[in-house]
Structures are given as C-alpha cells and as structure tokens.
Design brief:
Shape: globular
Number of helices: 3
Strand content: 35-45%
Distance between the termini: 38 Å
Largest sheet: 7 strands, mixed
Radius of gyration: 15 Å
Order of helices and strands: EEHEEHHEEEEE
Structural class: alpha+beta
C-alpha cells in the first residue's frame, strides 16, 4: 500500500497518508487541497466526498451507492476523484502531487457541523 507525504495544515506537520486515509478525511469534511497539476501549475481546490454534499448536489451518487455492482472498474490507486464544491463538478488529482490538505471550511456549532454552500 502506497503512502504519500502530505502536509496537514491544521496539525502543522507532514504526515504519511494512504489513499484510504485521504478518502476517509474527504468523506468526513470539505477540504482545501493544494496540488500540482500535470502541466506544473499549482491548484487549490475546495473538495469533498462528504455524503451530505454529494446527495444534495449530485443525486445520481445516492443511486450509485445503492447499486455498487454498477461500478465499471477499480479506481486508479494513485489518483482520487473528488467533488469540487465551488465548480459544482467532479475533478481528480494524483495523490503524489498533493502538497497540503486542510479543513478550514467546517463550522462547528451546538447544532452540529455547518458545511459551506459556495453560492
């Protein structure tokens, strides 16, 4: 299993993370991911795999979750498809190109967690 050195901004340190670690982080929150694109430019993306965001913005995701046998093929272990919240669409990045990941977008209240709407 491959690990990737990724700077976690809230912890202020670089950590060895697996693909599964990053997926789990994105399933729990909206993150700011900074990575280097294939053309060498830097990209900062607000993205997630959070079910509440996906089901409200991409209804077909809920249907796919009900029928996992419909999935076409196994994911590339070195890339990750995520939902770009401001762009309102799917994007992907190579895990070995990630410079940092942070979670400054969640607001914790007495009622729970509020997620950004990026209107």
């Amino acid at each position: 299993m491959s690990t990737y050195k990724i700077f976690v901004t809230e912890e202020g340190l670089e950590k060895d993370l697996t693909r599964e670690d990053v997926v789990e982080m994105l399933r729990n929150d909206v993150a700011t991911v900074t990575f280097t694109k294939a053309d060498g430019t830097e990209r900062v993306m607000e993205c997630t795999l959070l079910n509440e965001v996906l089901t409200s913005r991409v209804p077909e995701v809920a249907k796919m979750a009900e029928k996992p046998e419909k999935r076409k093929k196994a994911p590339n272990p070195h890339t990750l498809a995520v939902y770009d919240v401001p762009a309102d669409g799917w994007r992907s990045f190579r895990l070995d190109s990630v410079k940092s990941i942070g979670f400054p977008t969640s607001i914790f209240t007495d009622e729970g967690i509020t997620y950004p709407t990026f209107e």
